[in-house]
Amino acid sequence: MNHGVHFMAAIAFVWNERRQNKNTSRTKVIPAAGEEQLLLVDLVRSISVMRTETVIQTVKEVLKQPPAIAKDKKHLSLEVCMLQFFYAYTQRIPVTSLVDSWAALLLLLKDSIQVGLPAPGQFLILGVLNEFIMKNPSLENKKDQRDLQDVTHKIVDAIGAIAGSSLEQTTWLRRNLEVKPSPKIMVDGNNLESDVEDMLSPAMETSNITPSVYSVHALTLLSEVLAHLLDMVFYSDEKERVIPLLVNIMHYVVPYLRNHSAHNASSYRACVQLLSSLSGYQYTRRAWKKEAFDLFMDSSFFQMDASCVNHWRAIMDNLMTHDKTTFRDLMTRVAVAQSSSLNLFANRDVELEQRAMLLKRLAFAIFSSEIDQYQKYLPDIQGHMF
């Protein structure tokens, strides 16, 4: 198709002009397409020369070298609008069309990592990848599957870096991170798309603005798609390849979960939801077991929003159930705290407070379990309580 790049750029421009009214209900990081925007998808699909592979290749060229288009101050990045269109396009085309165009899609995904897309564009790339996996969970060719795994690793790493952009080093040690004291853009979990669109003006996309304004959205998106995505992309005999990636993600997640301040509440909610989803897959256990147990034993553990409790119950159930030692470790700590209270030189108030803290955690672990799951431990539990 002649002038295909300019045609698709024009589609992206009109896509932005047909955005939904912000008063509509929005609950996702990736904006849902409106009815008028979907007409553009149907228009492109109806053009016989615009086969799926051609559309993908043309979108790739738009991302690499966006044509200059006059736009007002409220216009979103052309690349982001192009990817919003393409995400909706992948949702509406047949599975066979998407699978047959895998080679072109792979090139688009690879190039997207290198062209320096703004954070919302990277969110959409992950959305496109997830859409492909949901429609076609496996590729017959082993090389294609390995390419899919490699590009998934790179895209998730990029989103992870955005998720960690509201953290800073406390010392020269790399792994010692904490939440930046300056407030981030707040989201309440019910209007995420509106928050994203408010941040997509040209002013927000300049190099003067740090990616930290998008960290909550990155964490939220990971909590929604990451666990299932990795389980689909990496086969049962390849699960070990997931662990280094998850260890890196947890490197960014744990500092948010250690911070119980009000301005970090939205990040905390997203992170506990992410950890909860990951904990449901036993092969991920090595990446989060120690960190989750340490967070559980932290003195500030119960300082959380009520909406986080059920996620922590799922985490604790998975933590205590999937092996035979973790619950025993908790019981041992309670027993040690009880026996240390006999020490004549110990501070009695401190000892009682420590024992109460451990009993609360024992109670929460039992509360998070199935009915009668720890019945065989009942004599020991009663012995620790009295």
From TrEMBL:
<dbReference type="InterPro" id="IPR056457">
    <property type="entry name" value="DOP1_C"/>
</dbReference>
<dbReference type="Pfam" id="PF24598">
    <property type="entry name" value="DOP1_C"/>
</dbReference>
<dbReference type="GO" id="GO:0005802">
    <property type="term" value="C:trans-Golgi network"/>
</dbReference>
<dbReference type="GO" id="GO:0005829">
    <property type="term" value="C:cytosol"/>
</dbReference>
<dbReference type="GO" id="GO:0005768">
    <property type="term" value="C:endosome"/>
</dbReference>
<dbReference type="GO" id="GO:0006895">
    <property type="term" value="P:Golgi to endosome transport"/>
</dbReference>
<feature type="domain" description="DOP1-like C-terminal">
    <location>
        <begin position="85"/>
        <end position="383"/>
    </location>
</feature>
<dbReference type="InterPro" id="IPR040314">
    <property type="entry name" value="DOP1"/>
</dbReference>
<protein>
    <submittedName>
        <fullName>DOP1 leucine zipper like protein A</fullName>
    </submittedName>
</protein>
